[in-house]
Amino acid sequence: MSDLHGDRRKSAVVDTNALEWQASPAPGVWRKRLELVGDTEKGMVTSIVRFDPGCGFPMHDHPLGEEVLVLDGVFADEFGSYPKGSFTLLPTGSRHRPQTETGCTLLVKLCQYPGAERPTRRVDTTDADGWHETGPGRQRFTVFDEPGYPETIYLSRLAPGTTVPHHVHDGGEEVFVIEGEISDENGSYPAGTWLRLADGTAHAPKSEGGCLLYVKNGHLPKQQEA
User: Fold this and answer.
1) In this structure, are 27 and 109 located in the same domain?
2) Distance between CA atoms of 60 and 119, rounded to whole angstroms?
3) Is residue 65 part of a domain?
4) What is the DSSP letter of 17?
């Protein structure tokens, strides 16, 4: 058993550029863990995962779901091939054999999409038709926002010089900076930075040069919860 940034009631910031790649159980598959709760190989985990060309994992299932965003290269399984910008959500009980011919780098979240009744999603976030304006200099591509579930998952694009109005995160928020840089009252966060903002966190993020972000919000424990 192990914990890494395991208290999800607390904020955390990780610059993945400063982390060393660690070997996974599969040859040629490497990872940088950002948070881990529970068992080293079966617990709830958020990681950056790199597949060397021609490598993959054997067939396996996901007891509490999986979330994958392709950051570069081409990821694949028996259901298709997923280039950079592809987003996959697999619910409880899903099975597949992930692999790559070319090599790829992924943002992966395990055991954080529970429920066999949840939808399976395989979407291309580079599709211009999926992006919508949400405010001056701000666009969003929503991947998951369903009644009855606490979280919303989307990509966010900020144009250069954009400032988001000051706001409070009810239910917290996770952000991974895919491209560019974002900053707020507490610091600056270049591409490769993962942030977990605890429930009740308030800030006014901005981006001088523009950025592309992965965002998941509304899913973290309330501060008053034990």
Assistant:
1) yes
2) 19
3) yes
4) G
Number of domains comprising the chain = 2
Rounded distance between C-alpha atoms, residue 220 and residue 85, angstroms: 25
E strand spans, 80-119: 80-83, 86-90, 94-96, 104-110
Give the pLDDT band of residue 3 (cuts 50, 70, 90).
Answer: confident
State the burial class of residue 92 (Cβ atoms within 10 Å of its Cβ: 0-12, 13-18, 19+).
middle
- Tens digit of pLDDT for each residue in 115-130? 999 999 999 999 999 9
Per-residue pLDDT, 226: 41
Instruction: Write the CA distances from 116 to 31, 79, 90, 147, integer angstroms.
Output: 27, 18, 9, 16
The domain in which residue 28 lies consists of 18-124
Beta partners for residue 27, in sequence order: none
* CA neighbor of 33 nearest in space, from 54, 59, 6, 67: 6
Q: Which token pair is 68? A: 């994958």
Alpha carbon distance 182, 36 (integer Å): 25
How many CB atoms neighbour CB 79 within 10 A? 13
* Stated length of the chain: 226
CA–CA gap between residue 193 and residue 188 (Å, rounded): 9
Distance in angstroms (rounded) separating the CA atoms of residues 158 and 116:
34
Q: Which of 38, 42, 45 is nearest to 3 (CA)?
A: 38
3-state class (DSSP) for residue 133: strand
